Amino acid sequence: MVHPFRAAIALIALASATACAPEAPSPPTACGGAAAIGAMIAIPGGRFTMGADDFYPEERPLRDVVVEGFTMQAHEVTNAQFAAFVAATGYVTVAERALDARDFPTLNAAQRAPGSLVFAPRDDFVDLNDFTQWWAWRPGADWRHPAGPDSSLAGLENHPVVHVAFEDAMAYARWAGATLPSEAQWERAARGGLNGADYVWGDRARDAQGRPRANHWQGVFPVRDAAEDGYAGSAPIGCFERNGFGLYDMAGNVWELTRDDYVDARGPQPGAKVGRGGSFLCSDTYCGRYRPAARIPIASDSGMQHVGFRVIASP
Fold first, then answer.
1. In whole angstroms, what is the distance from residue 246 CA to residue 38 CA?
2. What is the structure's pLDDT at 75?
3. Helix, coil or strand: residue 172
4. CA angle (124, 136, 145) in 5-degree steps
5. Which of 230, 297, 260 is nearest to 16 (CA)?
6. What's the whole-model pTM score?
7. What is d(CA 19, CA 243) in angstroms, rounded to the nearest whole number?
8. pLDDT at position 218 over 60
9. For residue 305, which of 125, 131, 168, 116 has the smallest C-alpha distance?
10. Is the link from the previous residue into 222 a cis peptide, with omega within 30 of 0?
């Protein structure tokens, strides 16, 4: 077994050698409200071009892929939805479980305490090659305490749930009679019928007025998020325009887990699943990954403050 902190940091490193560029639309009337919650959207089957050739190596090569039709949740799973699952099942997430001393005999009790990775921004310029300067392992951080043990979900009920590991997301999906999407299903859905476009809304990162079109980082990363999109951190579901298939936040907000193991040119990366869609931490000056072709490795055994999920089902 691998200590969650080391596993997650190692996988952040895989993604850190690359960048981001977004845009945001006008919020729909259902922003954070009940109208969109729980809706499942029909995604038509068909052939599309998967990947991108002119951004990051792990997105290559371009290839034609055929997927069958399925339905996908219109938005990321919310804190309120996940809370209902926990209330019904008593489920305890990976981030809420202490490490077993038998599996980690060299760690002391404090090092085995439950916790997760939290974004800990600096107030000065940092070396962008050293991601440990803005990520911190925080005992007591979990889905109920997204910013650390002293935080809560007050006012965040319709924000996407975070600090969920792969097994947590799959447990929720099984309870809901669903599953997680494959990479191909996720990208088919994210493109919304715009085959080959750089972004889920087209080929320009911002709208005609120069405004962001998704919840991502504006400003100097990781020092200051100018929040031109209206949010520093996650946003409630449904606050940005839907894509061509009617799905919200397929760009930015939080990374979304898929069920596929992470593979790149080096081969399979043990203990990692593929994350898609970018997050509120995607900066044009650093990460550039709130695009439909973008992908990163996410440690299977750890939670992070910018990782969530949405579910799919058969038609």
1. 13
2. 96
3. helix
4. 115
5. 297
6. 0.89
7. 22
8. yes
9. 116
10. yes
